[in-house]
Amino acid sequence: MTHELLTIGRISVDIYPNDIGVGLEDVTSFGKYLGGSPSNVAVAAARHGRRTGVITRTGDDPFGNFLHRELRKFNVDDSFVTPAAGQTPATFCAIKPATDEFPLYFYGRFPTAPDLQIKAEELDLDAIRDAVIFWSTVTGLCQEPSRSAHIAAHEARPRTGLKDGQFTILDLDYRPMFWASEEEARAEVAKILPHVTVAIGNDKECAVAVGEGTPDEQADRLLAAGVEIAVVKLGPEGVMAKTRTERVVSAPVPVETVNGLGAGDSFGGAFVHGLLSGWPLSEVLDYANAAGAIVASRLSCADAMPTPDEVTSLLAERGRPVPGASAAVTEGAVR
């Protein structure tokens, strides 16, 4: 199978409280869900009907079995998910929407985790090379052997070797607890950027990757590094995407936030769907923005990923253009 989207990196069990608005010390019951950003993105794209897979590692334990079962439930190919040393990590979250606080507590990730034990020699480079979109994250670069595996994966699909319609996406998800310093992270990102065609991050993540500056300055630096589409999230002001010939801003889609943690992954999966559909960049951005908003209004991440009908309904409800409704578009129109 040629994957329309193949991701690499984190997977975990998300443990989310059923009691909303209180600290973890006061929670009486929890639910467990598939988690880990690259895995969530694969799930999100699968919800839009895309053929997706994930390259990752779990522990050889019941939580690992649970994650395999969940991936299959969401129609995500788990053939590149194998066991590695260590226990499957779990991530706890307190959910306090009234204060916009969603603190994360990582268990089983230090000093390392199974999904950071992906080795370069274990990779199916043909599958990586053939994937229409390959998605990785900055967190996957934080330690060996995952770092070398990520570099090998990107070197297997150089930017100059991509076919028309293929994209290589880097999620600039800098998480300080996994790094010794921002400078270390920036040095590792610099090794990957020459192979990347799309970079996605918020202001802080872009600053770690290419330095402080305005969103436009950061986008321009990403473009100067060879990226074709630079996506800079603007927080309450929405999100901007910039190419060498186009600048698009999508205003936020206001919703009542329940849990903001999965919104970025839902955005990513929907953005992938838009690229694969060949929509104009403005429509890709609006669609992804709406998909992120839907998940922010729900409790979980993977289980909350919306369907295309849910996204287009929200866009129509808010008076936003519905992709593909105004005119037929050709495959690869974004490039």
Question: Key terms for this structure?
Answer:
single chain, 335 residues, alpha/beta, ten-stranded mixed beta sheet, four-stranded mixed beta sheet, 10 helices, 14 strands, disordered C terminus
Unreliable stretches covering 5 or more consecutive residues: 327-335
Roughly what fraction of the amino acids lie in strands? 15-25%
By secondary-structure content and strand pairing, the structural class works out as alpha/beta
Radius of gyration: 18 Å
Write the element-wise H/E pattern from the N-terminal end onward. Answer: EEEHEHEEEEHEHEHEHHEEEHHH
In quaternary terms, these chains amount to single chain
What is the count of β-strands? Answer: 14
List the total number of helices: 10
Shape: globular
Terminal CA distance reads 24 Å
Largest sheet: 10 strands, mixed
Average of the residue pLDDT scores: 94
Query: Which percent range fits the helix content?
Result: 25-40%
